[in-house]
Amino acid sequence: MRVFTGIQLAAGPREKLLRELKPFHKAGTPIRWTEERNIHLTLKFIGEAEPALARRIGAALGDAPRPAPFRLRLRGFGKFPGGDELHVLWAGVEESAELNALFAGMEEGLSALGIAREARPFHPHVTLGRNKARFNFKGVFSLLQEKAGLFLGDWDVAAYQLFASDLTPAGPVYTVLKEIPLVES
Catalytic residue at 87? Predict the structure, then answer.
């Protein structure tokens, strides 16, 4: 199975995000949209893991340093990469010292299992769609400009999750393998 860590969105921000995403869906692009049930904030994609390794990963995350519960704010839409290409359309997450501390502690716990630390800087975002085709995204880029700073909601984070991703012909299905609570200070 493929495993990754992430944070589930609360109902309020999820609903506003989905409402504000509707004009992007109507733009008629080749973007492959993330299923509503799969929308989350990815912390780290770990990769293929046998069930025994997934259990060890869950245990290591439970032992890793974690911050106290904190509040996250979802703001604006953006894309990767820059320029006139679009490979990933995302919703942004505001800078958070607690989220950065959570990520650093998670990386520390996973590195003890020999799982490589991320080579790229941590850029928290919620992936909404992916694209591989060349296309004129002028309409989408206009919407991105219009909604770049739009406040999409905030929520209290009291835990994060270790997920399994099962690839099916109908798309990926995510299952929570373990919920890792944040620690009260």
Answer: no
